[in-house]
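Suppose a colleague, Dr. K., hands you the sequence of a protein chain of 139 amino acids and asks what its three-dimensional shape might be. Before reaching for any lab equipment, you can write down a predicted structure in token form. Begin with the sequence itself:
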Amino acid sequence: MNKQNLIDFTRYKLPVIVWGLTIIGVSSIPDFPPINTEKNNLDKLAHLIEYGIFTYLLARAFYFSKKNFFRRKAIILTPFISVIFAAGDEIHQLAIPGRFGSLNDFFADLGGILLSLFLFIKIVKPFSYNENNQKHRDF
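The predicted structure, expressed as tokens, is then:
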């Protein structure tokens, strides 16, 4: 791996891997103390934020990929992979003692995925190219 490939891996791919492993790691903790959801919706907000971050990092990795296929299909691949990852995470929690998969949690994950993708399309994508259609900004 040459120096530029290592820089690109560290900048774009490694954050997705680390964040995904963090999600799986936290989801794997048995009897994780739940957030009190009777008085607030902090649990759902946490799901929205964690999958919003995951989706942003994934979209960024695809969009700034050196492989043309991933760049062109970033907006399609990102939600597809994010939704599968979120569903897999909820299913995975069914096997963890003291944890449970929740359709409501999945919908909160989905909200984070869609919000992050929308913001990526509206904010990052338009500002990542200059007037000559060359990449000039790194998000």
